[in-house]
């Protein structure tokens, strides 16, 4: 594994876990901290499901799926010698975020969420965390690369 990919994974996990420890310590009592008016606030939430709280209380399922997904990402990453820097980055982001939420599920039985985005009375986005953000950004990057036929390919043997 190259240095940038390792850094992205470690940074994703550490920043995710530190912010979750902070949220559990500061926000657990039901407080909500406004960051940008009513648009962005920090609010403690425990998610026992997946995105949008679907599949509640399926902890073992999520632990197994995460391990399988990390194995698949690892195989893709290490089997492709000419993978582009952006392809490596997308895999590292997805893996780092997945591991961050995996740690919560393993340790606590649920995932701590705290980033609360609200669009007035129109729509309240589901509360999420740093790991979720990293997974989503890595997935969007991977989708763009796939759509433009750039995933896994590199003109030379580039190293990050």
Overall structural class, as computed from helix and strand content, comes to alpha+beta
Instruction: Give me the strand/helix succession.
Output: HEEHHEEH
Percent range for helical residues?
40-55%
**Sheet with the most strands?**
4 strands, antiparallel
- The number of domains is 1
Shape: globular
Distance between the termini: 9 Å
Task: Write out the strand line-up for the largest beta sheet, numbering strands in chain order.
Answer: 1-2-3-4
The average pLDDT score comes to 88
Count of alpha and pi helical runs: 4
State the total count of DSSP E strands: 4
Instruction: Please give the radius of gyration in angstroms.
Output: 17 Å
SS strand fraction: 15-25%
Q: Low-confidence spans: pLDDT under 50, at least 5 residues? A: 156-160
Describe the protein's architecture and organization.
It is a single chain. The protein has 160 residues and is α+β, with helices and mostly antiparallel strands. It has one domain. It has four helices and four strands, in the order H-E-E-H-H-E-E-H. It has a four-stranded antiparallel beta sheet. Helix 1 (3-26) runs parallel beside helix 3, helix 2 runs antiparallel to helix 3 (85-108) and helix 3 (85-108) runs antiparallel to helix 4 (130-147).
Summarize the structure.
By secondary structure, the protein is an alpha+beta fold. The chain is 54% helix and 15% strand. It has one domain.
Describe this protein with a few key phrases:
single chain, 160 residues, alpha+beta, 4-stranded antiparallel β-sheet, 4 helices, 4 strands, disordered C terminus
């Amino acid at each position: 594994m190259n240095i940038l990919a390792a850094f992205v994974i470690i940074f994703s996990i550490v920043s995710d876990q530190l912010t979750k420890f902070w949220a559990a310590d500061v926000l657990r009592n039901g407080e909500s901290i406004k960051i940008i008016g009513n648009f962005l606030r920090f609010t403690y939430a425990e998610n026992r499901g997946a995105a949008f709280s679907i599949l509640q209380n399926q902890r073992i399922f999520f632990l197994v799926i995460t391990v399988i997904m990390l194995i698949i990402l690892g195989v893709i990453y290490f089997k492709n010698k000419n993978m582009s820097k952006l392809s490596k980055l997308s895999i590292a982001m997805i893996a780092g975020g997945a591991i961050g939420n995996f740690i919560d599920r393993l340790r606590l039985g649920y995932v701590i969420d705290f980033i609360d985005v609200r669009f007035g009375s129109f729509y309240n986005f589901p509360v999420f965390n740093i790991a979720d953000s990293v997974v989503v950004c890595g997935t969007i990057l991977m989708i763009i690369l796939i759509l433009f036929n750039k995933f896994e390919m590199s003109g030379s043997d580039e190293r990050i």
